[in-house]
Amino acid sequence: MRLRHNLRQADLRNNAGHYTPRACDCSFCVKHGAAYLSDAQGRLTIRAENLDSLRHYRQGSRNADCLFCGTCGVLVALVCHIDGRLHGTINSRILNDVQSFAEPAKVSPKSLTVQDKLMRWKQMWFSDVVVELG
């Protein structure tokens, strides 16, 4: 699946209609208009030309890193190390065919404990994530 920016690529096992993005209700995600998409059996590659083209921000519970395009400032993805492996989810709004997805489902991870969040992310997020520079 191709994305709007040259920074990344997501490989999904199914066609877009199979997925329902998740719209987190925390103030950060609401302000960014994010709706996350992932495929635990898929692959996510985030490519950035250099360190300046990919910005990081540690999210509220300090368990995941938010990745932003260093050029336009759009929220691209969230990544988190769980059990020694990098997991991630992408902001579906950056996909070229965003209209192909179902309307985002509202979710409230802020009501979960840290351990519950990590377990949920491990089950739902891409488990094959690579971040490349250069």
Automatic annotation (TrEMBL):
SUPFAM superfamilies registered for this protein in UniProt: Mss4-like
InterPro entries this protein is in?
Mss4-like_sf
Q: What's the protein called, per UniProt? A: CENP-V/GFA domain-containing protein
Organism the protein comes from:
Noviherbaspirillum album
Q: Upper lineage ranks?
A: Bacteria, Pseudomonadati, Pseudomonadota, Betaproteobacteria, Burkholderiales
